[in-house]
Design brief:
The chain is 29% helix and 13% strand. The model has no long low-confidence stretch (mean pLDDT 89). It has helices at residues 44-54, 71-80, 91-97, 105-113, 140-149; strands at 2-7, 14-19, 22-27, 89-90, 126-127.
Length: 164
Amino acid sequence: MTTYTTIDSPLGELLLGGEGTALTSVSLPGQRNAPRPRDGSPLGEAARQLGAYFAGRLTRFELDLAPEGTDFQLRVWRALDDIPYGRTTTYGELAARLDVPRAEIRAVGAAIGANPLLVVRPCHRVIGADGSMRGYAGGVENKVRLLTHEGALQPMLACGDQTP
């Protein structure tokens, strides 16, 4: 039986889904393909680790994960775990590590876009070859927030009108 709980985060309320103690999904409000909760049972360890991540005390999650996907998707999602905290990689670099032909880079992108474990499986660390922030199921603005939180991007300073 799938259980759900919510936690507050700098990105807004996160919805955690799981089977027993295994985490199956992490989603943001308004995210496409987000699960619909049926009950409110807690996933205490996942909530604790996410809280520690957002507080800057955790750089790698150690959770029992049980996402559902195709063999290809699972392979891509596991590869995301190897992208270090505070670093980024490109879709092409990730495809090369997975021995996926250049002609199939879009399949890697589609698998990344279907990642049900936002934040925990760090799909936000995959960017365009030109350094651009390509799509993110939780919204590109949240991708930027996560990369800034991890130090992979410099914080943007708001500049007001400095006219005397």
